[in-house]
Amino acid sequence: MSQLSTPTAATPTWRLRNAAFWDGVRHQYDKRDIDAWDDSVPYEVTNNPDFAERCAQGVLHYVISCQADGFQGQFTVLEPGAGLGQFCYLFISKLHALMNIAGVDPSCLTYILCDQSEQTRDFWSEQPQLQFYLKREYIKIEPFTLDSHQGFAKVTSAIDDYDLRNNRVILLANYFFDSLLQQPYRLIDGVYVPHEIGKPRSQINKKLTSLSFKPANTACDDSICGVSQRILDEFAERGIEYVLMPEGAMAVIQWLDQLSDHPALIICHDKGFSDLSQNAYNATYHIIKTGQYASCVNFQALGRYTELALHGSCMLPSPYDSGFTCAVFHTKVRHEALAGFRVGLEYLVQSGHSFVRMYSQRYLSRYELAEDLTGLFAVLRELRFSLHALVEQKDFLIEKLRQADCLDHIDIDGALDAFWQHYYFTPHRKSQTQLIALLEVALHAKRYVYVEDKLADYASWHGKDYAFKKISGDLYFIQSDFASAAYYFTEAMNDNPDCDHCKQYLTHCESLL
Questions:
Q1: Is this structure's pTM higher than 0.85?
Q2: Are 246 and 180 contacting, i.e. CB atoms less than 8 angstroms apart?
Q3: Residue 206 — very low, low, confident or very high, per pLDDT cuts 50/70/90?
Q4: What is the mean pLDDT of residues 194-205?
Q5: What is the C-alpha end-to-end distance of the chain, expressed in Å?
């Protein structure tokens, strides 16, 4: 912590209050555990097969480059604030597949899922898709907390007890840095004055309204370290009026760097600014509430901190890709000769690939202009058979399947298996909706054995609810088992008496019986 701050007994009030503001964000995540991602905080952009595969390719390039350069130790990947654990599952499954192709032993890398919430860690330890990797110790689970100490960020984690001195450590920060401790400054008369973040409340309904920013009762911030002051001085020379200093992210990178004698690699995907001269903060410091408070990460400040304090280097994205982008930080080395690593990551960073893919995936998942199933499955394949895309396309896809005279020219079985490999159970409605969509598409593709097999998993994870009974009724009706179909349609109507579909097909069953 000494590099970031010089806390004293007289920590400024504004600093303590700002730390409490960001600590409040952390406490809300801790309180809600995995339910924070039940459609209240957006996460699809970093929890899909395409994104996970691109991250896996970048990490594999790094692993191969290090090994080719003579490194023979272990690799440790950390994902703090890993949410549902869905990205971890997609990433590790893609990485192992790529390692098998490249002839790299998967046991050379361990993935550590980290979170402050004990409930979240308990969910990961029981999550069905993670069990294969947990039992073989490809994945481990550890607590990780970033809170404040006298107004400054401090990392606490059981990972401190690991012996990682001889390991190459990699941090994957997906929408993580944006909600850590960040300090707002405004340039006034050539000096950056710290501002206190305020949360006014409505006098009518007590709901949070817009934030306020009040100048601190000081001409400057004397509590920050020399490196942070130097970074602020550089911004001042360029006349940048509003600056948000990412103190929490700096603390995490510093902590990570100290874990190993080797360079640490940080791959960050987030919204953020890489050149405040081109695209910068406004008077609200871009702090918004999307489920919880977060802001655009000051990648430029993080890059300079990595260079100045940790003697490292960085790869920063285009300043115009601030909506969602990738930034890479590498400690302890100015210019490491890892050609494969640079090809694998630097091109992706500088080309704005993450920003482009975010939008192209969003539009493709709603694409309904394919004239036939061949075109539609080509779109789904481009989307790496994302369950999110399947839900968006379900009705259109089922309509095309009904119209098709023959499916022999489509690899239906391969597509269904790919969708299944990407399915990730959570107790939330979104996970349930995705599995229902997969079952309904498989049913209309006449893959009855597949549907029956996956219905057993559905019952195990989500229970024998209305959707289970309705799909079971459809499955038996199509196969002319009208007695079983009548039973399930009757059971479904007990749960949902207004289901016209069940009423209609129950009448058919009774007449046929």
A1: yes
A2: yes
A3: very low
A4: 72
A5: 76
Residues 6+ apart with CB under 8 A from 76: 109, 110, 112, 162, 164, 167, 168, 169, 170
Give the separation between CA 485 and CA 502, rounded to whole angstroms. 10
**Residue 205, burial from CB neighbour count under 10 angstroms (0-12, 13-18, 19+):** exposed
Distance CA 342, CA 345 (A): 5
Helix (H/G/I), strand (E/B), else coil: 384: coil
Range of the domain at 29: 14-181+247-359
Residue carrying structure tokens 């920050």 = 224
pLDDT for the residue 477: 95
Q: For 414, what's the count of Cα atoms within 13 Å in the CB-facing half-sphere?
A: 10
> Is residue 245 within 8 Å of 290, Cβ to Cβ?
no
Helices 387-403 and 412-422: crossing angle in degrees, nearest 10, is 160
pLDDT at 389 over 70: yes
Partners of 245 in the beta sheet?
183
Q: How far is CA 249 from CA 182, 306, 445, in A?
A: 8, 11, 48
- Report the 10 Å Cβ neighbour count for 32: 18
Run of H or E residues at 81:
none
Tokens of 314: 């960085």
Residue 498 located in a structural domain: no
The DSSP element (H or E) to which 75 belongs, if any, is strand 75-80
Q: Which residues pair with 426 in a beta bridge?
A: none
pLDDT tens track for 244-257: 999 999 999 999 99
CATH number at residue 71: 3.40.50.150
Helices (H), ranges, 103-246: 118-126, 131-135, 226-237
pLDDT-based confidence at 322, cuts 50/70/90? confident
Under DSSP, the state recorded for 159 is G
The average pLDDT across 310-327 equals: 90
Tokens encoding 307: 């260079």
The tokens describing 321, both together, are 């890709």
Residues pairing with 205 in the sheet: none
For residue 283, is it within any domain?
yes
pLDDT band, residue 205 (cuts 50/70/90): very low
Could you give the CA distance from residue 258 to residue 310 in angstroms, rounded to a whole number? 10
Task: Give the integer Cα–Cα distance in Å for 315 and 330.
Answer: 9
Phi, psi torsion values for 123, nearest 5 degrees: -60, -45
Whether the Cβ atoms of residue 84 and residue 43 lie closer than 8 Å to each other: yes
Note whether residue 374 is domain-resident.
no
| Residues 201/209, Cβ–Cβ less than 8 Å | yes
The answer to whether position 228 is within a domain reads no
Count of the separate structural domains present in the chain: 1
- Please say if the pLDDT value at position 5 is more than 80: no
